[in-house]
């Protein structure tokens, strides 16, 4: 099938022929994508274009005008790996100008009314304590979804959440059945982002019971299997710190559930276009195949041809100030407090050691994500010459 696209030459030829003749997946008349200028959404856009859906793709993009929005869209498409020969496949016809809470013109509303599939990737994914996180991820998302309430044409509304919406009061293995309805509103969370994703999931289901809603909950999304950190360096800076320092607050045998963004994007597209789905919520995760921290560190050692001495060890939280100072000194950066704050924040996630069951998604679409141990070398290659503080900016935007 065309939506099962991989970057082989025959597949590239197939995508080009599909675009030239306007071939599309049956039933996918108009696919509306939000967040297309972001990390996950940008990779979904590339996957959709490579699947021959460029002429049926509508991207919600902010901009001064359509030309400005198109320029931003094309720039991110290239960053996310779209072949430059295909950039011209994106035109102003692919642009729905605005943001989640926009007051759309009658012409734009007419285009929205014809949408058959939605993949909602738009969110403020910063781990900063910013009031915009709740506004965008909850209120604005609900207003956007309300436009499809009672739609006679909409067949599927994929909402991209996060596996960590489960909160912190769980055992180490998170059953996929628990991903369905968000749970209690008083769940403990480490950051406002995960709380906002849990809250909006519950509100979407309760506010719009007739919406053909499917929630996709990615685990930790780090890097790209081919492009490494080129599309985004989000979270990989933490792996670099742990690798360099050989210590952190999680034990060496703690599992870390990570998937690559291109695996995540293809899974989202498959969930969107598959005519029938067995469930209304899925984990997009490494699951039982999630590697341990020690295995990831060993793969990073191999990537840079070192023997792994000294061995990685678990350290107490009391060592984090010294660890932050070491990083700041090596980076020749005086912002030790930001580094320490980030290390403390992420230590909370690492110490949970969550593994998110992915039995549903594996059965539904034969989901087989590549282990980070198999592509971490590309992440390291594309991080050469890039400062850790520079990479941290992906996660601390405010």
UniProtKB/TrEMBL annotation:
It comes from the Bacteria. Pfam families: NAD_binding_4. One of its GO terms (cellular component) is cytoplasm. InterPro entries: FAR_NAD-bd (IPR013120), NAD(P)-bd_dom_sf (IPR036291), NAD(P)-dependent_oxidoreduct (IPR051783). Gene3D superfamilies: NAD(P)-binding Rossmann-like Domain. Residues 33-267 form the Thioester reductase (TE) domain. Signal peptide: none annotated. Transmembrane segments: none annotated. SUPFAM superfamilies: NAD(P)-binding Rossmann-fold domains (SSF51735). PANTHER family: NAD(P)-BINDING DOMAIN-CONTAINING PROTEIN-RELATED, PROTEIN YEEZ. This is Nucleoside-diphosphate-sugar epimerase. It comes from Cupriavidus basilensis.
